[in-house]
Amino acid sequence: MVEEVEPRRRAAAADRQEWWLSWTADGKGERMAAYAVAHVDEIEEFADAGCHYRPIRHHLGITAFGVTAWTGRAAGDLVIDEHDEDDPTADQELFLVLRGHAVFALDGDRVDAPAGTLVFAPPRTKRTAIAEAEGTIIIAMEGTPGQAYEPRGWELWAPLAPRYAAGEYVEVAERLRALVAASPQYPMLFFNLACCESLSGRTGDALEHLGRAVEMSEEFRRSARTDSDLDPIRDEPAFKELIGD
User: Fold this and answer.
1) What are the percentages of helix, strand and coil residues in the chain, rounded to 5?
2) Sign of the C-alpha dihedral computed for residues 143, 39, 22 and 20 taken in this order
3) Are 77 and 134 in contact, with CB atoms under 8 Å apart?
4) Contact criterion met (CB below 8 Å) for 73 and 135
């Protein structure tokens, strides 16, 4: 996690990030919708595999599509990394260079992208972006053609991934318990919590949280059948009942 935004900006953010209600035209005062306002610089920045991002979607409570601000602090910084080969969210993407200047590599082609440039990448496009100027910000929006968007909560998991990779399962589980309490809408976080609890000997908690993940998404029932993190609890009757054959 990177340094805190300066206190003055924090105070401004608190003033501006208020939720407002839209009311029906007939004046009955029925709640129809809410909206949120934030400046990109006021959203806390995190690190993911050497890249820096601001979780716009999670910050504003967006559920219909993914949107993230990626930052290159210095010229030459990697702003947009390649998709992992097994990334299930390598979807249709639209990039907007909001600030600065970037160069994209799109399926081997070099594309110059000063501020204001829009870049569309179909699913499975091999793409990266490098900052050409200090403070470059690229807004990335994503969705899967023909499918409803399902928020995964990767924005909350990414800062913990290096500690998980280092084997700090107890510490990661403690952080995840706080995260799922505050943001219980993400089945991936429950699944990862179950994995960490399984690896740290907390069988009952692992089964409980795995159950929550499976209840919310069938994806994680399938994942549980092969994920080695769950091997310590695989012979438990409750696991077999939950996951099936």
Assistant:
1) 35, 25, 40
2) positive
3) no
4) yes
Residues 92 and 113 in one domain: yes
Structural domain boundaries, residue 55: 7-143
More reliable by pLDDT, 148 or 112: 112
Interatomic CA distance for residues 98 and 121, integer angstroms: 17
The closest of 183, 192, 175, 181 to 229, measured between CA atoms, is: 192
What is the count of structural domains for the chain? 2
pLDDT at 19 over 70: no
Q: Tokens 């696991």 sit at which residue? A: 239
Same domain, 31 and 114: yes
CATH of the domain at 189: 1.25.40.10
CATH number of the domain bearing residue 80: 2.60.120.10
pLDDT in tens, 181-216: 999 999 999 999 999 999 999 999 999 999 999 999
pTM over 0.85, yes/no:
no
Is residue 189 included in any domain, yes or no? Answer: yes
228 and 129, same structural domain? no
CB neighbourhood size of 34 (10 A)? 10
The reply to whether 70 and 109 lie within a common domain is yes
Q: What is the dihedral of CA 115, 116, 120, 121, to 10 degrees?
A: 10
- Helix H or strand E segment including 54: strand 51-54
pLDDT digit string (tens) for 94-139? 999 999 999 999 999 999 999 999 999 998 899 999 999 999 999 9
